[in-house]
Amino acid sequence: MIQFSRLTLFLLFVLFGQxxxxxxxxxxxxxxxxxxxxxxxxxxxxxxxxxxxxxxNSSGHFSMRVPKGTYYLTLSYVGYxxxxxxxxxxxxxxxxxxxxxxxxxxxxxxxxxxxxxQDIVSGRHRVSMEQILKQPSFAGEPDVLKSxxxxxxxxxxSEATTNIAVRGGSxxxxxxxxxxxxxxxxxxxxxxxxxxxxxxxxDVELYKGLMPARYGNRLSSVVDIxxxxxxxxxxxxxxxxxxxxSRLTLEGPIKKGVSSFIVxxxxxxxxxxxxxxxxLNEILPFxxxxxxxxxxxxxxxLNARINFGxxxxxxxxxxxxxxxxxxxxxxxLSGATLMDWGNKTASFQWxxxxxxxxxxxxxxxxxxxxxxxxxxxxGRRFDWNxxxxxxxxxxxxxYSVSKFLxxxxxxxxxxxxxxxxxxxxxxxxxxxxxxxxPKKHSLINSVFLEGQLSLGRFVKVSAGVRQSLFTLLGPSxxxxxxxxxxxxADSLYYPRGKNVxxxxxxxxxxxxxxxxxxxxxxKASFNQTVQFSHLLTNSSVGLPTDIWVPSNTFIKPQRARQxxxxxxxxxxxxxxxxxxxxxxxxxxxxxxxxxxADLFVNKTVETQIRVGNGTAYGIETMxxxxxxxxxxxxxxxxxxxxxxxxxxxxxxxxxxRDDRRHALSVTSLYAFPKRRLEFSTNFVLNSGAPITMPSxxxxxxxxLFYDYPGRNRFKLPAYHRLDVSLIVHRKPKKxxxxxxxxxxxxxxxxxxxxxxxxxxxxxxxxxxxxxSGLTPFGIVPSVTYNLVIK
Amino acid sequence: MKxxxxxxxxxxxxxxxxxEVNLSPAKGExxxxxxxxxxxxxxxxxxxxxxxxxDQGNYVRLTYSDPVNSFVPYEISPDGNNYTRDRxxxxxxxxxxxxxxxxxxxxxxxxxxxxxxxYGYYTSRDLVGKAGRTYQLFVKIKEKEYTATAFMxxxxxxxxxxxxxxxxxxxxxxxxxxxxxxxxxxSVKEYFLPKVTVVPQxxxxxxxxxxxxxxxxxxxxxxxxxxxxxxxSYIDGYMLKLxxxxxxxxTYALSKNVIYDACLYSLTKEAYDYYSVLISAFQNDGGAYxxxxxxxxxxxxxxxxxxxxxxxxxxxxxxxR
Lengths: 790, 321
Hints:
heterodimer, A: mainly beta, Immunoglobulin-like, Maltoporin, Chain A, 2 domains, 22-stranded antiparallel β-barrel, five-stranded mixed beta sheet, 6% helix, globular, disordered N terminus, B: ten-stranded mixed beta sheet, four-stranded antiparallel beta sheet, 3 helices
């Protein structure tokens, strides 16, 4: 006789009990933009009667199990008008759902998506593309990552950089994906702009709290960016001409209503503008310091994507690609160096509706990043270059088990090749032997399973686990550390394909949402994450020459555990929302460089690293008004982050690079529909960042040098600025829509200290050793002209 | 109206440039600075004693550090002819001893000149360096003791020196730069300090070469170092930058008809690391795009700043015609 435990019986009842008591059917659909027919990922489908909410997946598809009956289904998506449908379910029901973008007119607008109180995933934010395109932006370039910086808990290491540090983690702990492919260096022009052309982006999602189990290999957060599909109904061209860059986007149907393409390019001539100002400098009767005529600052981005499906509608395919490149020499920031760097990604995705309850998404992606670095006036005359390549395969399944439970599960395989550095002779005058560091090869195999479970109307649980196996492969010479991990004690060569070192990563994820009412909830989450790739960066803001290395015998995988608890609410009409959330994060095996680390093509660079712990905690508050002619968002974070690493800062705890106690941002948008005007503002106020400053000066062989008491012990002055933007829409014509965008970055010309510099100043009768703060720019106006031809 | 907007726009752009603001770091504890230099160069000690060059010869210089952002006035010497180069606080009553590994001990005396800019220098007429030897430094200041050990590695012979004319373009660097030719022993890890100095032609005290007084903070330091990593077995024309500045571009050129000494000094790894950190401190302003700055590593025990270095030298005299 078969005996069942009580637990087994309970699980069987939960999974299958409803089939005994009530017949359930699948209610599913594909959510799209009503005009362009773009699919809308992460849209919410909410059933009022059951309180159940499903999210559309990356392909815009959602499904849920419901008993027979009549329901009101509310669909919502950030930047679109919500829509309620009356649905009669008598059997499996599939709905084509079209949502109207809120930007089609300037009347009562809505950017609200799902109510945050309903979202089962705490710490998830969706940034509206409309918001990104309408916010004031630096030099008139809308920037995806800079818009993310206005969210609570998200900081940038410095003024005018696109790297983001989330909840006390460093910026290499954020996984940034473009159509599923990781982007390793997201910075143009040393971080003044990001590599994401806003005209080509459809959706931006940030996970900073509970990270879904389908994401891994980063400790702190994920920014998942999806490209637009292209308009499936009509051909369109969009042209944008700005102060430092211009953009052109072409899109249209391949087969109307079924398949589409989009190609979007951006080119920056910032260097020519700066050099032009330098020439103006020479002509004007007064000298404006710091503008020269020999700078090299240029970059481009090119995004392309095609989407097509089969006649049955059960299969959809997309192929997307990105290429971007920078060339940079700006004398103040890079001295006599010339840097060349670029990313390339490609992604092929196959979506298949296997059944009305089971949906598959399979993705193969390729990422590469590489750079060249030259010191222009160096006696050795060399070119230093490095690159990183990654191939990813991921297959995931969304399965509606019952009206209480849906599952997401799958597997992922990542192969990584890393060339950490090589030296080539620059020309015939070079006195250098070509040399290269050995390549590093690694493989990460992961499986993941996550379930979203409704325990009654008021409690929702998201529980998942990700299990990874990391393997470092030969050919490789592995160095083994001494007892305290500071020097090499031994080395061993491993031939091709041999397992050099393996690490397992177990990552449980748990989130609980307790609905206090329809519009109020308490959420708690626990996240354990593991990171096998490590960024060796020796600057605060990141440089193109930063090196990614896989875990090895010296550098073990980093691990973090984060808990968070928060209260979320919105008004019934979701016009206003409020949230307050506290978090505590403990990071183990975080890395930092020793003082005066030697990174230059160092085959034992691991000896320059020390490993320790990091702690971060804080409380985040956000108040938003997301509908109406006047919208705003207020975000405030009070936080602290420290590191304690043996061998650094005399073994004492020191502030993390992103330790800014207070961070406030206020964004607003006011639409004047009758005048076809939109006015927006950003205000940012942050505590000063920690930096390392000297306390003493001393002379050695005739020159002045500095003595430093410790790391990150000095705080820069507080940072604040106000940006404004005015969009003037020309009266739309039959085939064209045009607008002018006038914006001013840093309206009141605040001298925000970007970095500190130390100089000696000689005068005829005295000498002054001066520590100064450097401010990169004051007020920056810009004008952009946008034209859409359709 | 359009012209006004254009002018305002351009004006705003011109305002949008890099500028500086004053910061006030915390003041730190004053420390002893020990600058110990020992070479095997053969030089005229009488000439050296009378017409001391700050960075030549064998000496130990003792000074105190200063807090940052301190305002340090120069003094003009009584004869009105010379400006002081730095105004560090010299330590004048210290005990300074150097001992080699053969047991020879030499007590250094405060420099007899005791005039600007030579306060704080301790020298000895008997002290002679030799490649392959290890030297120990002992300093006692009041009741505090400081020690250091330095090995003097051998240096390859500098075979020859030539010059090359570099022209970077209008308003950019143009001039003659030296090229060094020497053998590199690939079986041994070697580190070098190549340098060019002006051979003094005058009998009066003169301002050292490459030192200049200007309103620019872009001072040059006549030191650069080289590791034999990635160098071939014969260095067939290594181009010197003639010192280090904050900009890292070529800054200075050789002058015609001036007699120069091309000097190739040997360094230990420790000394190379020390000089590398000092050189990178010129380009690394500690800002956002630089590594976190830190004090240079020292081989002096006892809590002093500075370094005790012993170098062997190979010298070739040349002139640019």
